[in-house]
Design a protein that fits this description.
Strand content: 15-25%
Number of domains: 1
Helix content: 25-40%
Number of helices: 5
Distance between the termini: 15 Å
CATH topology: Rossmann fold
CATH class: Alpha Beta
Oligomer: single chain
Largest sheet: 5 strands, parallel
Structural class: alpha/beta
Number of strands: 9
Length: 202
């Protein structure tokens, strides 16, 4: 992906930050509460006393949950607007404007656990992000990375006559790596920018 992709992704998330705070709130939206968070906590295990990186922290709901469980979290996001909202909601927690693809603000081998909840499909620099995760993790550290399966992008679903079924369609090859723009949904007013890549890339 290109530097334009990075710029456009940052601009998008800065623009939708207030809407994202409405969507996720303090407890996470229903998808996180019912689907991803239980899986994340099961794989993360006991976090009390651990230094934890919330990579792509957004408005900080997961960072706050980590702190409530006794972790010492650092929330990182490349969106200044997201971090400002996170700091406003959780002034006692450590939030940093930084790219997960570089993690300039973190020293090598200083993190026990990395959590990244629905972030990697939104970053144009996946390989760089994974390399940065490896750099900051202590030996024996764990990374719990949750992302949407690229075969089932939400913006490409349609509801046929049967409301209990969802059909997915593609207007390009599943194996093609490319930036995608999906129409705004719900209360969002901007189209969603994300980056398709096959599952094997992860």
């Amino acid at each position: 992906m290109s530097s334009d992709d990075v710029r456009d992704a940052r601009r998008f998330w800065d623009g939708v930050a207030p809407d994202w705070q409405i969507q996720v709130g303090a407890e996470g939206d229903s998808n996180r509460r019912l689907n991803s968070d239980p899986v994340l906590w099961r794989f993360a295990g006991e976090v009390a006393g651990l230094s934890v990186l919330d990579a792509g922290c957004g408005t900080g709901y997961l960072t706050a949950k980590l702190a409530q469980r006794g972790a010492v979290p650092v929330g990182v996001d490349f969106s200044t607007s997201m971090v400002e909202l996170a700091r406003g909601a959780h002034p006692d927690l450590d939030f940093r404007v930084d790219s997960i693809s570089h993690l300039y603000s973190l020293a090598d081998k200083t993190i026990d656990l990395i959590v990244s909840n629905y972030v990697l499909m939104d970053t144009p620099e996946l390989e760089e992000a994974v390399s940065s995760f490896y750099r900051v993790l202590r030996p024996g550290g764990v990374a719990v990375l949750i992302f949407s399966h690229p075969c089932f992008p939400a913006g490409q679903s349609t509801s046929p006559d049967d409301p209990t079924r969802i059909a997915y369609h593609w207007n390009h090859s599943y194996f093609e790596r490319r930036r995608r723009v999906d129409p705004a949904w719900g209360h969002f007013t901007e189209d969603f920018v994300w980056f398709h890549r096959p599952l094997s890339d992860y």
